[in-house]
Design a protein that fits this description.
Blueprint (H helix, E strand, L loop, with lengths): L4 H31 L2 E3 L12 H12 L7 E3 L2 H30 L5 E3 L3 E6 L2 E10 L4 E14 L2 E12 L5 E7 L6 H11 L6 E10 L5 E9 L3 E4 L7 E2 L5 E2 L14 H9 L3
Parallel strand pairs: 4-11
Antiparallel strand pairs: 1-2, 3-5, 4-5, 5-8, 6-7, 6-9, 9-10, 12-13
Helix pairs in contact: 1-2, 1-3
């Protein structure tokens, strides 16, 4: 059965915790039994019954969970010391297990991604630097994005471009576009041309911070690109369609990276166009 990644991680965590729990219970039961440090109380009938390994496991369980029915009790100083150790381990184990389990339940899985390339797209008579963002989980709201570009010269990072802006909510698909024909983005335009002509090695980073719409958890994401990951295109292929109620359906995430090719003449015009 093919479980989602989050479910698989949760099941693995529970399985490992269960194994640790069994080792603790059986281990302490063996110590109780081997040390002959526990016995039946006076009101137990018959109170002279021999403590076998099964009863030692029973006592280990009720001691671990601090239930303390009183039908079996430590009869030696060693037994009381063993109980103190087991109770201390129980306290830490239960707290850690509960905390991590809650974390697994509410934490957001790794379900946000972007295209593996940064695209120069030609749309409506303008050139854009574009990324496509995907989200297979809960919506992300209050997005604040940052796009940076830089080069490395003489072991020093030299910033070429930086842009910060707010984005619409990330439901399933979101497009990040920078108009390269806008004079304010001229440094990025020129840097991209230099990188495509292999005159410089351009480093780029797209990142954003937002909030999970359901839990309010802050979500951060970052993706790095270099010159070899710059490509040309026009329109991204659809990932889903709409039903009559205005809801998305028929998701085809395999189309996420697919884009129509740009005509060669438009590529050449971009490379030679100056402000």
């Amino acid at each position: 059965m093919n479980f989602p990644l989050k479910i698989r991680e949760l099941l693995i965590f529970i399985l490992i915790s269960l194994c640790i729990y069994i080792v603790i219970i059986v281990g302490f039961a063996y110590v109780y039994f081997l040390s002959d440090s526990i016995g039946l109380t006076q009101y137990s009938k018959p109170h002279s019954e021999i403590i076998d390994f099964e009863k030692a496991i029973y006592f280990s369980i009720v001691s671990f969970h601090t239930i303390g029915f009183g039908d079996i009790h430590p009869t030696t100083d060693l037994g009381r010391q063993i109980i103190m150790v087991q109770s201390t381990i129980s306290l830490f184990f239960t707290s850690i297990f509960s905390g991590v389990l809650v974390y697994f339940v509410i934490k957001r899985p790794r379900d946000i991604f972007t295209t593996n390339k940064v695209y120069i797209r030609f749309r409506k008579d303008h050139y854009y630097l574009s990324l496509r963002l995907g989200n297979k989980g809960r919506d992300i709201i209050d997005l604040k994005s940052k796009f940076e570009a830089w080069t490395i010269e003489n072991n020093t990072r030299i910033r070429t471009f930086r842009c910060e802006e707010e984005l619409p909510d990330l439901e399933k698909i979101l497009y990040y576009d920078l108009n390269l024909d806008d004079p304010i983005n001229q440094p990025l335009n020129l840097a991209l041309k230099e990188a495509l002509k292999e005159k410089i090695l351009l480093h780029m980073k797209f990142s954003f911070i937002g909030n999970d719409i359901k839990t309010g958890e802050q979500v951060a994401y970052a993706k790095y690109y270099v010159s070899s990951q710059i490509s040309f295109g026009t329109t991204f292929m659809n990932v889903y369609s709409w039903d009559n109620n205005g809801r998305r359906k028929n998701f085809k995430w395999k189309n996420f990276e697919q884009i129509e090719l740009m005509e060669q003449k438009n590529i050449e015009n971009f490379l030679k166009t100056n402000f």
